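General statements about sequence and structure are easier to judge against a single worked case. When preparing material for the folding task, we compiled for one chain both its residues and its backbone structure tokens. The amino acid sequence and the backbone structure tokens for this protein are reproduced below:
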Amino acid sequence: MRALFQFLNLLSRPDPTAVWPEPPSIVAARAEIAMRLSWMTSVLGMVLFAVDRFIGMPVTADSMMTLVLAVMGALAWVLLKVRRYNSVAWLLVVFLFGMAAASTWFFGSVRTINIVLILMGLVAAGIFLSRRGLLWTTAAAVALLGLLTWADAAGLLAGQPRFAVSWRNWLSQSASLVGVAAMMFLNRTQVRLAQELHLQEATQRLRAQLDRDLGQGRFSRLFRTSPTPIFVQSMRNGAILDVNLAFERALGYTRQEVLSRRDGFLWLHDEAYAAFSQDRRAHRRTGWHSITGVGRNGQQVPLQICSERDDDADDGLRITVLRVPGHTTSAMPTVYAPLEGGQGA
């Protein structure tokens, strides 16, 4: 048993070729149903074994298969409980293939109905394992079926086939059909949850995009119509991304003349400007500083300046506000939303 767990642990290591990572909600929903089916399978195996003993059937290798079924269900429940989902899939494949091989050996012919357990193992592999796992399982199924067929043709199987049927044949076949239906139901659950999750994420993405666009639209209108001179820079390279009309009136530059340029040409580089630059580098938001601006025609314009930056890790923005002493102006605005580089706010 310890060797079996080590084998399952080896097979359940993450597969780098898997292309269908499952969200936790899908895994949780599928695991809940699978755990219910696992303990039901274990109970079914124990009940069948008890009924055989009650009606006086001799203990044969065929009747012992019901105990193997019970053990498989119990182990599957334990692995699901500890969230070893890939291990459960490999457990099903190993047990189902082993039961099919044992049934063929003791029945004496590869034509036993229990050979359908190999098909059930492939269904489990196709639903729960990666593409690589399915390929390996298919190759193992073909090789196992070929080996059993050769042993049957060579007369190497242990039993002598009997074609008498009873209610147990019908019950075992029905259990196989129910097992396949249960696995397909789990697959449908996974697909349905994945579709619902995708639709939910798409809706949330569209809502976030709409909120962002509305926020940018409000900021754009405020930015353009504000009587306070404002310009926006990139934190990454210091390039001016946008200016408003009040900035153009205050310094005489047109928007196109200042876009993509650093702001050094706009100021007289004296001690006052050096103090503002140091404050701007050290703090996210500066106080008001008195500096001297340089207009388009070289005229010097006394100004007060205040700057604030956002916290974007990729390429943050810096918003700088100017005011002419003696003119009424608004307080420093808050950074509401990112602006498109080189475009209007």
